[in-house]
Give the backbone structure.
Amino acid sequence: MKVLRVHLVGWTASFRYPIFITGYQPTLPVPPVSTIYGLISAAKGDYVTPLNTKVGYVMRSEAKGVDLETIYMLSTDNSAKSNVYKREFLLNPDLYLYLTDLSFKEIFKKPEYPLLLGRSSDLMMVEEVKEVDLMQKHGNKRVGGTVVPFEEEGIWGPLQALPMYFSNTIPREAIGIKSYYVLENFIEYDGDSFWYDDELDWGVYLHGQENISQKQ
Amino acid sequence: MNNVNGFMLIDAPASALNNAGPDIGAKTENTIAVKKIRRGRGEYVYVSGQAFRFWMRSSLENVFGWELSPIEREAKIAFTAADPFKYPDDDVFGYMRAIGKKSGITLTRVSPFKCSPLISVTPVNIVNDFGVMARHEGDPVPYEHEFYSTVLKGIFSLDLDSVGRFSSENKTGYMNITEAYKKEWEEHNCFIEDDGRTVVLPLEIRAKRASDLIGVLPYIFGGAKQTSHLTDVSPKFLVLTILNCGNNIFMNIAVDDKGEASINVKALKEVILDYRENIVSDVYIGKREGFIDEYNEDLKQMVDEINNTLENVKVHFLTVNEAVSKFQQVVSDFYKR
């Protein structure tokens, strides 16, 4: 299958665990699907959802650090109180995106808004935009650096409830929340639910509309 | 979308620019650790993006007299806090303000200025310094703090189209203002666009805000422990240009060369050539004499080669202050196109 592969690099990235509201803010080791659709929306300069394109991704990083941040808690009487909390972030994120809609090629060559992976300090650079062939490879392959829906047979790892994408309203609503395996490291996988990138030698799980309808 | 793309190197000899508080597990109870990331065997020190933004804000106040948006204030009109007409830092650095459940309106503005943390280019040897407080009667109080010598890299982008342009679109990040600001925008002689959904400040105000933000770079002051370390945090190497897209193209030009921070001149040349179609201004490279002078010849050669090859883009190799003041003019002229 012909897909678009976009390689992005950055210095830092952070993906908040949705269940932590205050106190220590850990980061997920890989972005949720919703972050990926946010990144694609920034590139297009318009709202992109799983209805527009299916996406797969593999992200690795080199280390994890902890930052101290000040937040200002505003109250209704217009006063503000400061508080310091710890927030984790990832060093040198390296992200390969796979998009089934090839028309995004021009969009990633000339992204509309600055590309960010997480928060406003997590700036990203497009390193390469390329059309590649994903193959069906039966038998053993390594998969990781991504999230995979819980029901997928043959996959194992920590589970986390994550959204698929966010609505374009105020307030934003998380849509398609379900359980995902969060695959930080690569594992050996035997099934056929992943496509295979021959050049980089890893499996690619495609998230998108077909996956939603199959599982519902 | 037109963005200023900037890259900088900051020389930090014997510095402790951003601290992470008490070092839990240190020999003594009062050791203050610098912010750092461990990667493999090496430690990389950093200054958080939040801290750098604070340096920018406070320097803009000190150098250009910006009136900064106060965090505490009295409620006089509907929403006084997030006021991008009155306070230039609200405009350029963005805001989020929950107005309350009753009115159901939350104002948010995506920051037109975005910056990375400053991160050391190479792994760093962090030194533990020992000090005492002994000016009082009785036992002296010992304390320790960490510091380092390194070169920090940072990038930033400034969305020129968004500076001084405020929308009331009902989308997160785009609900900058409401009708309650009408008096403000009338006082500032703003233009109204998109059937009233977008309010735009006069060009000269937008040009001043954007060019001040660039112009403050050589005068930027900030960082922790300045009383005992006094680090000059103004950039010693700087690349500035305007791109018509949101790619941050200068992320790979500082590299670790056998433990020394160095400039990958080849990579810098490659991105300028690769993105020639997206670069809408000239490229300004500023370097302070005395800082990584071994790259002077390579940089001059690269500048000549590009200037001989490209028609639409010229590269200027100047001192930091010259590069900044010329580029300030470029930014101002951008609004008068």
